[in-house]
Specification:
three-stranded antiparallel sheet; about 270 residues; alpha/beta; Rossmann fold; disordered C terminus; 2 domains; globular; 8 helices
Amino acid sequence: MTAPMQTAPVAGRTLIEVRGVAKRYTGGTLALDGINLSIAEGEFLSLLGPSGCGKSTLLRLIAGLGQPSSGSIEWPRATYDVAGEPERGIGFVFQEPTLLPWGTVFDNVFLPLRLAGQRRRDAEGAVLDAIEKVGLAGFVKAYPRQLSGGMRMRVSIARALVKRPKVLLMDEPFAALDEITRMRLNDDLLELWAGRGWTVLFVTHSVYESVYLSSRIALMGARPGHIRELIGVGAPYPRDENFRISADYNEYCRITSAALRGAMAGKGGDL
């Protein structure tokens, strides 16, 4: 089996359009240059590349946590609020859970709704639903110090889900976890994605994780960060342990690993 290489936008309605985006910091460092990327509704897209290639920078720009130095990030299907700002419906999961140590699981998941002005009793249903979705229904009153690393990350994911976003942005959320926990959370994430119809943009350093999760992989080259290849992963969903041990999975990993080695060596043409 030869895995297909995909260099055009995926079929379907475009949700996010990144056009010619560059990011130069105040000190003069050019972190991103000429980023062009179309993200379709409902897809699971991973950003893969060597350290320092600007994956997290691009994710934050898409989230609106900064502005490009040039180019644009457009949301063609976004609705707009009374001030004319696009209502993107984003949930963001950082690499570290960043939980309030003095707050319970409920308190931490409730935080975005509290900051939005909702009262605790009005938000209770949404908070409990998000906690249940990540498998922590029995830990509503637990504190972060009482949870494992994987459970703390589940709380972070629930906090991102509580406002019922359309787009989930995830910045290496499982990088610090052991391999068994990481694989379990990969499975749980795919189950949630399938059930909720999100668009997911997922930053990772792991070839194996990117192939397992993604419908497409955007491979980024070293600084200044740029998209070198778009790799389509044509394996059907749902994916499980049978996919992890399949010849198809091994072949997709081989192709993606070779492309990543090329990116790290600075070889090959850019899109």
